[in-house]
Write a structure and sequence with these properties.
This protein is an alpha+beta fold. It is built from 20 helices and 31 strands. Strands 2, 3, 28, 29, 30 and 31 form a six-stranded mixed β-sheet that branches. A five-stranded antiparallel β-sheet has the order 1-4-5-6-7, with no helix packed on it. α3 packs antiparallel against α4 and α10 runs parallel beside α12. The termini are far apart. One of its GO terms (biological process) is regulation of autophagy. Pfam families: RMC1_C, RMC1_N. This is Mic1 domain-containing protein.
Length: 747
């Protein structure tokens, strides 16, 4: 892809009024570009080109090509260089294994350059009958490179040994222009008088799939003229693993959306536009529609049923600019002493005429040789909506800043509880978190974000949980693997009932295409084998969520039950005063959601419920919670019942019964001894044959009671029932103490 600076009719670069957004300004923005940019200013460069197959920004000179790796984006990275032959450059791309450089020299010739040997050869088209529009490399097993010509597609296999191209297949079509993205592996070929008839091919690693021919909608102008569609009016975007085609209709001022399936192309509504020049970006599966002339951006989340924007149109801001740049901008004068990293007033301009937008989330300032990356302000987005469940669902789907999204979800939910919002509202919010966590456990995405040591512990604690990835559901997973039967039934808007669907990796959208029958069979098998129908545990180690500490490996914003306890319920318990009934009601709603998703909850949450009820002396209600199995039996719960039962005999009895029910005889006996009920503990030990507690504990408890009869009874018990005890030092010591106590009583 060549990046050209747009010129006006006089041949001079057109200018626009600066629209400067500063990090220190009062303006609100949901999207921004972060300083510093990647500087790619090369002397005597013939232009900038973008190789989306390898995520390379290229700047060729007469005999060299400078390349910057921009995926992942690093503004401080330096370029690598390769030697090339002199000549005109229309397009340039590296092969996917980066061993070969292909350069389009003219409308009929491509030159190939072997980076290792330096050898080169040229491939020429027939100049009398066809014109070369462009080319791209593929990872297909059948071919390596595709040439797009006015006569159709030529699929070639590149031979490194023979330094030649071998024709594999030809697709004969009339082509006016084309659009292609490596992310989708999809090429759309425009034809017809208005260039609104399209043929599509997805050339993936396993197969080449031809889409049905389709036409794009175009409104007629008042003069009844027929507008012609241009290449810059069509965008291919990949969102949540699904491939969409977006088309600008300037007459109707609409952006039409088309969903691409294996056997159909379905228009899925239209979005309003407010500018003649439109650009599209995708950041973390969020669609950014840039209204370039209006200098604002509108965000859409296509996962939701609604086509309403996430927020109102807002400007794009620069963030992190150095003080030298901001001071020069605010005064309107350029500083002569700016260092090499600072921006001039002409460089810090949003939506300049020289901006060229790159797939999926980059923009290149061709005039100033700068590359910026778009980012989302999740905090500003979450603060701009009062629909809390929708905000939480949106945040749970984020992956690029999963840790920040997780902290925002925890903070929002904690605030709801602290502000005593209606229980129904808080219940909906908590249900979003629980459902998202359940889905992430079933798909394995939650464990992908954990460190290896945490992951192993999580797998061990997820007793019975299916943490392997579910068989790929055809809904929303691949470009054309769904059948039109499901499309016409209206299911294409509702890709999943799970709110926290994780965005798919790049390769999913380039998978081999299934036919309609295979897709329907896959749906049936996934429904029958879904882990949602079986119980699974969800003991997961608490992940570190320290404020301001970003974990790069975290790829899921899902929140475990233990994190909900540690960062929501426990802090709220410390801050709230008065009647704890409200917090108990919220916790019960959480337990209800966890039960529906068959997620086990750690005992510390049940312990908190006991503490809250006992604090308010609601022992009768506490008893009902235990009898109705709302509190899951465990050692921790039993011990807390015993602790809280110091003021209520019935509650203490519930704790004792739970210890016996769980078969924790050792803990029960030890607790009795610690509480001074050592004689009762001896009787219980004899009845249940508990021999794991040292005799010294019983003897010391009897000695502390200062009752010689009790001490004698304990000594007699161990002498009779513990073989060899009479010959131990413990027996001799306490026998001597007993004699001393009896002597003192006699005196």
């Amino acid at each position: 892809m060549v990046l050209k600076r747009k010129l006006n009719m006089s041949g001079k670069a057109s200018t626009s009024k600066p629209n400067i957004g500063l990090s220190g300004s009062d303006g609100l923005s949901h999207a921004y570009v972060q300083y510093p940019p990647l500087r790619c200013n090369v002397p005597e460069s013939s232009g900038l080109f973008y190789d989306d197959g390898n995520k390379l920004l290229l700047s060729p000179t007469a005999d060299q090509v400078f390349s910057w790796k921009v995926g992942p984006f690093d503004p401080l990275i330096g370029p690598t260089t390769d030697s090339i032959r002199e000549g005109p450059i229309i397009a340039i791309r590296y092969s996917l294994d980066t061993k070969v450089i292909a350069i389009q020299r003219s409308n009929h010739e491509i030159q190939f350059w072997d980076r290792e040997t330096g050898e080169a050869f040229s491939h020429k088209c027939r100049p009398e009958s066809e014109c070369l529009l462009g080319f791209f490399w593929t990872d297909s097993q059948q071919c390596n490179i595709v040439l797009v010509k006015t006569s159709g597609l030529d699929l070639y296999a590149y031979s490194l040994e023979s330094k030649s191209l071998q024709l594999v297949e030809t697709k004969k079509l009339n082509v006016s222009w084309y659009v292609y993205t490596h992310e989708s592996r999809l090429v759309l070929l425009a034809s017809g008088m208005q260039c609104k008839t399209f043929h599509g091919f997805q050339i993936s690693s396993a197969d080449t799939v031809r889409l049905p021919r389709f036409e794009m909608a175009m409104a007629k102008s008042e003069a009844n003229t027929k507008p012609v569609l241009a290449a810059e009016d069509v965008f291919i975007v990949t969102v949540y693993g699904r491939i969409y085609c977006l088309q600008v209709d300037r007459v109707a001022m609409l952006l039409h959306s088309y969903r691409l399936y294996r056997d159909a192309v379905i228009q899925q509504g239209s979005l309003p536009i407010y500018s003649n020049r439109i650009a599209v970006s995708v950041v973390d599966n969020v669609l950014l529609i840039h209204q370039v002339d209006a200098k604002v951006v509108i965000l859409y989340d296509l996962f939701a049923d609604s086509r309403a924007p996430i927020s109102a149109p807002l400007p794009l801001l620069f963030r992190g600019l150095p003080k030298s740049s901001t001071s020069s901008q605010s005064s309107g004068r350029e500083s002569e002493s700016l260092n090499s990293n600072a921006l001039s007033i002409h460089e810090a301009v949003t939506y300049a005429n020289a901006w060229t937008f790159l797939v999926p989330d980059l923009v290149c300032d061709v005039a100033n040789k700068l590359l910026w990356k778009f980012n989302l302000d999740l905090e500003a987005i979450s603060a701009s909506s009062s629909e809390v469940p929708s905000v939480l669902e949106f945040l749970q789907r984020r992956k690029l800043e999963a840790n920040k999204a997780k902290q925002l979800c925890l903070g929002i939910t904690r605030t709801l509880v602290l502000e005593h919002r209606p229980v129904s509202m808080v219940a909906k919010a908590i249900n979003v978190l629980v459902t998202s966590f359940s889905h992430s456990i079933k798909t394995g995405s939650y464990l992908k974000g954990l460190k290896p040591e945490k992951r192993s512990a999580s797998v061990e604690q997820n007793t019975g949980a299916d943490v392997t990835a579910i068989g790929t559901d055809v809904t929303g997973k691949s470009v054309i693997c769904e059948s039109t039967t499901r499309v016409h039934s209206g299911s294409f808007h509702k890709a999943s009932t799970v709110t926290g669907l994780d965005s798919e990796d790049e390769y999913l959208s380039a998978n081999p295409i299934e036919n309609s029958k295979e897709a329907q069979v896959g749906v049936k098998m996934n429904n029958e084998n879904s882990p949602r129908t079986g119980a699974h545990g969800a003991y997961v180690m608490q992940s570190s969520l320290q404020s301001g500490q970003e974990e790069p490996q975290l790829t899921s914003a899902a929140i475990s039950p233990d994190e909900i306890y540690s960062f929501i319920f426990s802090p709220v318990d410390e801050e709230m005063v008065g009647d704890p009934s409200y917090l108990v009601a919220i916790i019960i709603e959480f337990l209800h959601s966890a039960n529906l998703e068959k997620i086990r909850v750690l005992p510390n949450l049940y312990v908190l419920i006991i503490q809250l009820l006992a604090r308010n002396e609601r022992y009768a209600e506490l008893g009902l919670f235990v009898l109705n199995k709302i509190l899951e039996p465990s050692k921790e719960v039993a011990l807390q019942l015993l602790e809280s039962g110091r003021q209520d005999a019935q509650t203490r009895k519930l704790g004792l019964d739970m210890l016996r029910q769980l078969g924790l005889h050792h803990d029960y006996v030890l607790l009795l001894v610690q509480d001074g009920y050592y004689l009762e503990a001896l009787r219980y030990s004899r009845k249940y044959k508990v021999d794991t507690i040292r005799p010294s504990l019983f003897l010391e408890a009897a000695f502390v009671s200062n009752d010689s009869q009790h001490l004698a009874a304990v000594l007699r018990f161990f002498t009779d029932f513990l073989p060899g005890f009479k010959n131990t030092s413990e027996h001799n010591r306490y026998y001597r103490i007993l004699n001393e106590m009896n002597s003192a009583l006699t005196v």
